[in-house]
Every structure is written in C-alpha cells, then in structure tokens.
Write a structure and sequence with these properties.
This protein is α/β, with parallel strands linked by helices. Strand 6 and strand 7 form a beta hairpin. The protein is globular, with a radius of gyration of 25 Å.
Length: about 325
C-alpha cells in the first residue's frame, strides 16, 4: 500500500470481524507509539470475546486443520498450492491483536474518523460471531466485511468453528440492501474485487441473500421430509437463477458441506439412525499388519498364532 500510495499516516483502524486474518496484521500498520497515544480502533460488539474463543480455546486443533484446508506450506506451483478460493493464500507472518477502543453496538450508529463519516450495520452470527458492515456516505462506498464475497462461502468451515447461521446471514444481507444499496456506487468486501454502480451492487447483494436463504430453507425442507444429512447433501442443487452466477459457486464453500452444516445447526450431528449413534472407530485393516507365519516344526503347533491387534497410534486424525 505504502509503495503505491505513499507513506501516509494511519489515523484509525476498523476490525470488520473476529477472524484472525482481519485483525492479526494490525501491528503491521500501527506502531507502539500509535497505540500508546490512544489510536481509535473500532470493532463490533463482542469482537474480543469471539476472537479469543475461536482462535485461542480451540486454536491448536484449528491450526492443524487449517493446514489441510489452506495448504499454505505446499510448493507454490501447478502441483502444489495454486489458490485458496477466498484469496491467494493465508499469511505466514506473526499474528498480533490490539484490543479495540470502541465497540459498535447498534445498526445505524455513526462515527467520524479523521473527518470521514461512517454508518455501521451490526451483523452478529453471520460469517463470524461478531461482524459488521459499514457505509461511507460521502463516497457512496459500502464495505460488506466478509458477508458477501465473490463465491459461496462456508456455513461450516473445514478448519473447524461453530456452525454459522445461514438464516441470519441472509437476513442481514437483505437489511444491507434496504439500508445502503440505493446510495452505493462502489461495493467492496474484505476479500476479492469490488462491484461498481448501484444497480450492480443491489443485484449482487440480492443474489447472495437468496443463496444462503435457499440453502437454509431447502435443507430444512428435506430434513423435515426425513432425509439424512448425507442424502440432503447428495440431492441439493441450486436453481438455475443462482447456479448461473460465478459468485455463487463453490470456490471456497461447497453446497454439499454447507447443507450438512445447516442440518447440524438445527439437529446436531446424529442423523436419526440408531446404529450411527454409537458407531465404533474404524481400525486399521488387518491386512496392514499381516505377517507370513513360519513353517510348522515337529515341536510347534500347526495353527498360526493370533494376529496382534493393530495399533492406531501415530495415525493422522484428519
């Protein structure tokens, strides 16, 4: 940024939501002197609790799973890491967190930072437990945080997190349409590229709204008809009006695992079939530890000794 726009001072920071890639680089733009001087850092209400809960309490397990999800340590070539869907790759740098100085609690709150007016929309329990969109009236610019990006997002993320509320997600996108779309000339988010013009912004938001609402409603419809999560995931398909759009496709989230996520949020992991409630852990195949018994001798029994029980220690848990 500084290489292209000059070494301009940072006069305020906004955390859009409680995921580490949206606050972890804050000390890359703020100095300790800035922090000591009381630099204004704005975040949605509940930001700090959500950030600690998701990234500290389950941080070790989540970090291991994220290594599989993002593949950031793979070679950067055609046979290794090409893209992460949500962006090119995750940061491999040092993570930092500076607590916010101001919490946004209600939709419609207004704040002026360095002479720039900002109108906020709180969107709890959408793409993150604590998240917010905001609009710059003077510029006609709408930031949709990570609630609307150019793909189908995760209702459940494979790295591990609490299942997100697709119904609330759709509701808050619709609210953004009502609040800001008519005055929006530039729509941007924390990932991907912007949309230009009020009409294109409204169309994009409306389709994103319908995407999450459709997955939510159709998953519950099929669940109420008695289908299991796997059956729903196999049968659910987008209607042509949604399937035709590039930004509704599964470059990051997928229709299959998002349907399972909606089922889990309302009904849990159990599919209603009693044998699956206490199913045993699958052990290593016996063939993996089979050894040719020695030929019998006059002093040895003709029956081969029992096979040792396969050990699962050291096997990957992914």
């Amino acid at each position: 940024m500084r290489a292209h726009r000059g070494d301009k001072p940072v006069t305020g920071v906004i955390y859009t939501h409680s995921h580490v890639d949206h606050y972890g680089g804050v000390r890359g733009v703020l100095s300790q002197d800035d922090i000591d001087a009381g630099m204004q850092i704005v975040a949605p209400e509940g930001f700090l609790a959500a950030a600690v809960s998701e990234n500290v309490l389950a941080g070790n397990a989540m970090g291991r799973r994220a290594a599989y999800m993002y593949g950031a340590t793979l070679p950067k070539d055609g046979r290794g890491h090409v893209d992460s869907g949500l962006g090119k790759t995750v940061s491999m740098g040092h993570v930092s967190l500076v607590p916010p100085t101001l919490a946004i609690r209600e939709t419609g709150e207004r704040l002026t930072l360095d002479g720039v007016e900002i109108v906020f929309q709180v969107t709890p329990d959408t793409e993150a437990p604590a998240e917010m969109n905001f609009f710059f009236p003077g510029f006609g610019a709408l930031c949709m945080a990570e609630n609307c990006t150019c793909h189908l997002h995760n209702i459940y993320t494979p790295r591990g997190a609490q299942v997100r509320d697709a119904r609330a997600w759709s509701h808050y996108i619709n609210e953004a349409v009502e609040l800001f779309a008519a005055d929006t000339e530039a729509l941007f988010a924390s990932h991907h590229w912007p949309r230009w013009g009020s009409g294109e912004a409204a169309r994009f938001l409306t389709l994103q709204r319908d995407l999450y609402k459709y997955i939510h409603d159709q998953t519950l419809r099929m669940a109420n008809h008695g289908l299991t999560p796997l059956e729903i995931a196999e049968q659910l398909a987008l209607p042509p009006t949604l399937a035709a759009e590039w930004h509704t496709r599964g470059y990051y989230g997928t229709l299959s695992h998002n349907a399972k996520a909606v089922y889990q949020r309302y009904l849990g992991w159990f599919d209603g079939n009693p044998p699956t409630c206490t199913s045993c852990r699958r052990s290593r195949p016996e063939s993996a530890t089979w050894r040719q018994p020695a030929a019998p001798t006059p002093c040895s029994p003709r029956r081969a000794p029992p096979m040792p029980r396969a050990s699962t220690a050291g096997w990957p848990s992914w």
